[in-house]
Amino acid sequence: MTSNKYFVAVFLFAGLHFNVAQEESYRLQLPGTSEELEMIFIEGGEFLIGSPNTEIGHQEDESPQKTIKIKSFWIASTETTWNLYQHFVDRDIDKDYVEKQDEKLISLNIDAISGATTPYVDMSFGMGTNNFPAVGMTQKAAIQFTKWLSALTGNYYRLPTEAEWEYACRAGTQTAYSHGDDSSDLHEYAWFEGNSKGKYHKVGQMKPNPWGLYDMHGNVAEWTLDQYDPDIYKKLNRIKWNKPRKTYPKSVRGGSWIDNEKHLRSAARRGSDPQWKKRDPQLPKSEWWHTDAPFLGFRIVRPHQTPSEKEQENFWTTK
Questions:
Q1: 114 contact partners, CB below 8 Å, separation of at least 6
Q2: CA torsion angle for 159, 209, 190, 135 (degrees, to 10)?
Q3: What percent of the chain has pLDDT over 70?
């Protein structure tokens, strides 16, 4: 190993150091920090996206249901926290970055990756930052975070597609929620308008879904990679990814601390809105922050098969 190169190949899991096997969950450690994120391996398969019109809370943009085939991937067990996201905003650990040379790792110039501007208001709105979900970023900012993280680690990270998100949320179920159809049990699995007391909460405090993923229902809603189209299920036979062609609306999933039960269902969809920048005094409005969306965050995924460089950039490019 030369003095100006390093190779990250060892991760921490269950207190042990080992090389990551192809189909194991692992703990991602942000280089140069003590911050970690558990990445859960999700085996690919087929599932029925959307909801039947008999489901309580069903909306027209959730139909018709379609069978979708999903490839294997890892997904974060929790939403991205301020502990992690603030390093992207501050770019305080970039100096520790060294370009990867191993052929198994992707190589990116971290200096060429755009960073979020410092917001003019406290984007946590006093709700907390230590192990609380990061909120208020645009889809572009969330995507740039995944690109920055990829440069730091040498592994390819991105946002989930809508289909991947729902597949992971359902965790093999076809009920309204991953724990069943009864919304009266939701207080055990989610922070929502019925129990949030008007704020988001630390990640991972509620019960996880059957695949070990926390806060897929509630706490904060989550960005996906897709353009939101209420009729997309009607147009396509095999939905993979509806690549954004315009700034609004983009697809958001999961519901949040301000939402009621029907918006937390596994199939529930929502499009982003320019009103989420209503209080932003800048002209033009910020590309990085939604000053009126303290209910919106994201979680990351890592495909089991690293895509080509062209495909990587395709997923990272957004309007």
A1: 144
A2: -20
A3: 91
| Dihedral sign of CA atoms 290, 294, 295, 301 in order | positive
CA distance 95 to 244: 33
| Pairwise CA distance, residues 298 & 223, whole Å | 5
Instruction: For residues 48-52, give the mean pLDDT.
Output: 97
Farthest-apart Cα atoms in the chain, separation: 63
CA atoms within 13 A on the CB side of 200: 34
Q: What does DSSP say about strands 296-297 and 221-227: parallel, antiparallel, or unpaired?
A: parallel
- pTM assigned to the model: 0.91
Q: How far is CA 109 from CA 52, 192, 298, 301, 318, in A?
A: 46, 40, 24, 21, 19
What is residue 208's three-state secondary structure?
coil
Which residue reads 């959307």 in tokens? 50
Q: What is the pLDDT of residue 96?
A: 78
pLDDT of residue 20 exceeding 80, the answer is no
CB atoms inside a 10 Å sphere around CB 227:
23
Residue 237 scores a pLDDT above 90: no
